[in-house]
Amino acid sequence: MAGLIDTDRAKAEFGRATVAECGRASMKRDRQEIELIKAVIISLGAVLALAACNPTPQQQAAMRCGASTAGGAAVGAGLGSAIGGGKGRDIAMAAGALGGGAMGHRMGC
């Protein structure tokens, strides 16, 4: 141990890193390694948690139904926007969204 201390003192005398600087650098590396390990553990936990969230067939059907209804409403609103102008256009968009949503629900559910 005494040899290590003498080496550190020699480095300090020749203008290189002091003993305190070497200690701080070592502590910084240790903190970085700990942060990396924490990030890996958190990432693995998130992957395992998401893997456990596999939807059931009923949930998958409900998601498809919702997506088809929303898609139909979007298409209907888009088509309705091509009709008229001003307030008439707003009414056509609303009617298109309702009709498209109903059609999408009927087709997807």
Automatic annotation (TrEMBL):
Keywords: Lipoprotein
Superkingdom of source: Bacteria
Every Glycine zipper 2TM domain range: 68-108
Pfam families: Rick_17kDa_Anti
Membrane disposition: Lipid-anchor
Record's subcellular location: Cell outer membrane
InterPro entries hit by this protein: Gly_zipper_2TM_dom
Major localization class: membrane
Family per record: Belongs to the rickettsiale 17 kDa surface antigen family.
The protein's name: 17 kDa surface antigen
Species, as recorded: Paracoccus broussonetiae
Top-level taxonomy: Bacteria, Pseudomonadati, Pseudomonadota, Alphaproteobacteria, Rhodobacterales
